[in-house]
Amino acid sequence: MSKYRSLGFFGTLILGAFTRLFLTTNQPLRQWLQNRLEISTPLTSWNRVLEGVYLKWSLNSSSYEGDLVHEIPMMINIYHYLIQLFTNKHIIYVFILIDCLNSILVYKISYKIIQFNCIMENFNKTNGKYARLFESKEKKDDFLLTEKNFKPIFWSLFAMVCYLFNPLNLACCMSQTTVLIQHFVLLMWLNFLLNGKIFMSYIFLAIHANIAVYSLVLIVPSISFIRQKKIFKRKQIKSEFNLISKHATVFVLLFACVFMFNLYLENFNTRFIDCTYLFILKVRDLVPNMGLFWYFLTEMFDHFITFFIYVFQLNAFLYSIPLTLRLRNEPLVNLLIQIGLLYVFKSYPNIGETGLFTSFLPCVAYLFPLMRNVLVFTCMLIAGMVLAPIMFYLWLGSGGGNANFYFAITLVYSVGQIFLLVDVFYACLKREFIKLNGSNVPLNTDGKPANFTLE
Question: Which of 47, 370, 380, 436 is positioned for an S-S bond with 427, CB 3.0–4.6 A?
Answer without folding.
Answer: 370
